[in-house]
Amino acid sequence: MLDDIFFVGLLASTFRFATPIMFAALGEAVSQRAGVLNVGLEGIMLVGAFLAALGAWWTGTPWGGLVLAVAGGAAMGALHAFISITLRADQIISGIALIVLGLGISGYGYRMTLGGMSPPPSIPSFSPMEFWGLSDLPFVGPIFFGQHILVYMALAGAVLLHFFLYRSRWGLDVRAIGQSPVAADAVGIRVQGTRYATVIFGGAMAAMGGAYLSTAQLSGFVENMVSGRGFIAIACVVFGRWSPLGAMAAALFFGMADAAQIRLQSLNPDIPFQFFVMFPYVLAVVALVFMAKSSRMPAALGVPFQPPR
Amino acid sequence: MGPARDAGAPLLELRGITKCFGRLTANDDISLRVSRGEVVGLLGENGAGKSTLMNVLSGLIQPDQGDISLTGKAVSFASPRDAVAAGIGMVHQHFMLVPTLSVIENIALGDRSLRLFPLDLSGIRDRLAKVSNQVGLEVDPDATVGRLGIGEQQRVEIARVLCHDARILILDEPTAVLTPEESTQLFEAVRSMAAAGTSVILISHKLDDIFGICSRVAVLRQGRKVLDAPLDETDRDALVHAMVGDTVSAPHGERVSPPGPPIVTVKDLRLKRDNGATLIDDLNVEVRAGEILGVAGIEGNGQRELAECIAGLRRPDAGEISYDGEPIYGSMTPRRLRQMGLRHITEDRHGTGILPDQPLSENHLLGHIRNPRFNRRSWLQRHAAKEATASIIDQYDVRAAGADAPMGSLSGGNQQKAVLGRELADGIRFLIAAHPTRGLDIRTIAFIQRQLLELRDAGVGILLISSDLNEIWRLSDTILVFGGGNAFGPVSAETTSLPEVGAWMAGHQ
User: Fold this and answer.
1) Are both B381 and B465 inside the same structural domain?
2) Residue B408 counted as domain residue
3) Which of A141, A249, B131, B260 has its CA 20 to 30 A from that of B53?
4) What's the pLDDT at A91?
5) How far is A158 from A166, CA to CA, in rounded Å?
6) Which long-range contacts (CB under 8 A, 24 or more apart) does A134-143 make?
7) What are the sequence ranges of the domains in chain A?
8) Domain containing B277: what range?
9) Biggest alpha carbon distance in chain B?
10) How confident is the model at residue B253 (pLDDT cuts 50, 70, 90)?
């Protein structure tokens, strides 16, 4: 029976660990599909985590925190959009600036507000869902019915974005823009405007991932609490071949790797725990090595578009 | 079509269109009228301003001056969408299709009348079927565009324009990429479109296209309209004259001095394809100073491989090539060969000849970067590079906004002239010219051919690779033919005949 408990725990925490990565990866998948690479997810997630904690404390509800986080993430997305779309600067460099900016804003902001209070304020957070007691079902209960609402939002988001990309006119525009902006422009699609929208959306999604960390997984902000999940999210986009459902699957895969490494740590106390912590990142590198040359990569990814007028 | 039936006004009228790019006036006060159901040819050399004019008409670029009216009403196109909405559809020379999308998705792209969600393409599917039937353009709506051949992709482009109810269809060099049968099919389709009331503007520099389907022709030269007449009131000579201006003197092969000692010697050369099949076996040939060796043949019979071997870029599978008596393989690098005067006009201009995003002056540095004029103790001499480029622009009549203009902003012919100027500069002794005039207009072709003959007379050895048999025949002293897996010759141009060379090209002994 120990095995059952082990696997139920593993699968349940797979969803928990996957959710912040999934939010960020879904938003990134859409903006990369439109041709804009944002390597600054890490910074946006940090700002999202900080603003969620601040907003939750302010308004007294985690939903208030989520709204503030989304607004902040969208603003950082808009900044990246302005630099990389309007100014046509290098997207990688702009993204790296976002990482540093996010580290700074969240760390400084935290110390100026919540971090400076004594006693430390208690941050309202999301509590696990209650589906009329379904979470007490054996095995499936804790895995599927005992999660935070943000977990279900991320999974639903993946399905919705799938329909958005492949079954809507906007999705068709987005796919065309990332592949061949010149062709899209020639038929009158607003290339720059659509790119702005996807990058702002990507920022908002990354911030939701951050909000999950500070108002669901934990109740409160810790400096640098995102600890590399923003980069794993970028790997998920590649690994998931630039599709929302693929990115979801990749995020679940990394979530499971993270859940597994924590359990392996406690089962093997002789091995330094840092090796286990490395595990998901090593997987990310391996995944990129095998997938990076995929022909599914949007042809215009990372290339600023200059309208011929 | 409502008010479109106004009898007096033409369907489309352009008045006084002017557009400058930097110092270059691409369109200078051009006016053009097109009536309903008319097929108008727009003729001109590369860089004459045809594409600029049509980009203005399709909303891709804004004119500096001039106005456009449709059925007598003034219109202005701030973007391609405005032009499409007004019924103007353009089929670009480089297709504006998204290769990863299906045919039907490409046609639906940019159609604002479609429901946002769920995307329903059945209406477009019906329209495509109707249009295909009407003009005889067959396309599979569910095929991925990137997997289609060039001719099919063009059909997709045309079908798309027609699906969006275009009243005016602009075809930019449509036959440049087509086989003769495909061209015939295209002309059939254009005729049925015109019969159905669609006006067509056909951009071309081929007279056969114009005489094939047009009812009227306008000729542009250096940004100005120089002729505009119904086709039955003009003839080929008049059009050529209007296109080219002063007469182009045909190059002539009269030699001034006998050839000198051999520069490049090829002994017992064997070349294999990348997949291992033998391309050329036991080739023995030499190119002397002051001689043009013409290599004729259908492309893909080993010409490119031979050029690369001589340029030091590819190791032969067997045999020896020497330059000035020294074996190329073993002791020489491409850099050393360049220092010894070997120059190369590569066949793939975009891939290996130029850097399209860099300015002309930096393109000029390619291969000259070690020249002390441009490089003082490893410091780049930008000013010297710009001066050198400016003199090339003058000397070779390169139409460009200046030495700072990006190479990619030039037309193909002007790019080739800039490449020629670069390769010929500073100590040329041997030139590999691979398809130097392919895709260029008559005037540029004549200019480049004249340059090659002048080089020969100045004592340069030239390996000329061309699939244009006339070019080989007019310029070469010695002819080598690659055909059907064999090499024929080399033979002196004086001892062979055009039919014989043609037969060799087809692989007949």
Assistant:
1) no
2) yes
3) B131
4) 96
5) 12
6) A139/A4, A139/A8, A142/A8, A142/A9, A142/A12, A143/A8, A143/A11, A143/A12, A143/A15
7) 2-291
8) 260-341+428-509
9) 78
10) low
Distance from CA of B396 to the nearest CA of A (A): 28
Partners of residue B81 in chain A, C-beta under 8 Å:
187-189
Residues B63 and B141 in one domain: yes
CB contact under 8 A, A172 and B100: no
Q: A126 Cβ partners below 8 Å, 6+ apart?
A: A62, A148, A149, A150, A215, A216
- Note the pLDDT tens digit of each residue in A3-23: 778 888 899 999 999 999 999
Q: Which residue of B has its CA nearest to A166?
A: B119
Work out how many CB contacts closer than 8 A connect A with B: 83
**What is the number of alpha carbons within 13 Å of residue B133 lying toward its C-beta?**
6
- Same domain for B422 and B441, yes or no, is no
Q: Are residues B136 and B264 in the same domain?
A: no
Does residue B348 form part of some domain? no
Residues 6 or more apart in contact with residue A217 via CB below 8 angstroms? A16, A20
Residue B75, H or E segment? strand B73-75
CATH number at residue B136: 3.40.50.300
Domain boundary among B244, B279, B313: B244
Across the interface, do A170 and B118 touch by the CB < 8 Å criterion? no
B289 and B305 share a domain? Answer: yes
Residue B47 neighbours by CB under 8 Å, 6+ apart: B399, B410, B411, B413, B414, B441
Distance, in angstroms, between B18 CA and closest chain A CA? 15
Six-digit token string for A156 = 């639903």
Strands B478-483 and B292-296: parallel
The phi and psi torsions of A74 (rounded to 5 degrees) equal -65, -40
Query: Which ipTM value was assigned to this complex?
Result: 0.87
**B198 and B288 housed in the same domain:** no
In the listed set B244, B273, B288, which residue is the last one of a domain according to the structure? B244
Chain position carrying tokens 């215009």: A300
Q: How far is CA A268 from CA A191, A263, A273, in A?
A: 53, 9, 9
As for how many domains chain B has, the answer is 3
A180 and B62 within 8 Å at the Cβ level: the answer is no
User: CB–CB of B60 and A186 under 8 A?
Assistant: yes
Q: In this predicted structure, what is the pLDDT of residue B328? A: 86
Q: For residue B92, give how far its alpha carbon lies from the nearest alpha carbon of chain A (Å).
A: 10
- CB–CB of B114 and A185 under 8 A? no
Q: Which are the contacts of B304, defined by CB distance < 8 A and separation ≥ 6? A: B347, B434, B465
DSSP letter for each residue of B287-340: EETT-EEEEESSTTSSHHHHHHHHTTSS--SEEEEEETTEEHHHH--HHHHHHT
Residue A4 burial (CB count, 10 A)? 10
The reported pTM is 0.74
Structure tokens at B8: 């007096």
- Residue B287 CA to residue B430 CA, distance in Å, equals 9
**Bond preceding residue A308 cis, omega within 30 of 0:** no
Residues of chain B contacting A173 with CB distance shorter than 8 Å = 109-110
CATH of domain A2-291: 1.10.3470
Return the structure tokens found at B286: 């030499």
Contact A35, A177 (CB under 8 A): yes
B292 shares its domain with B413: no
More confident residue, A242 or B207: A242
Contact B105 A172 (CB under 8 A): yes
Kind and range of the H or E run holding B482: strand B478-483
The verdict on B373 and B480 lying in the same domain is no
Whether B210 is in a domain gets the answer yes
Shortest distance between the Cα of A177 and any Cα of chain B, in A, equals 9
* CB nearest A185 (choices: B80, B90, B99): B80
Give residue-wise pLDDT tens across range A50-101. Answer: 999 999 999 999 999 999 999 999 999 999 999 999 999 999 999 999 999 9
Which position has the higher pLDDT, B495 or B290?
A: B290
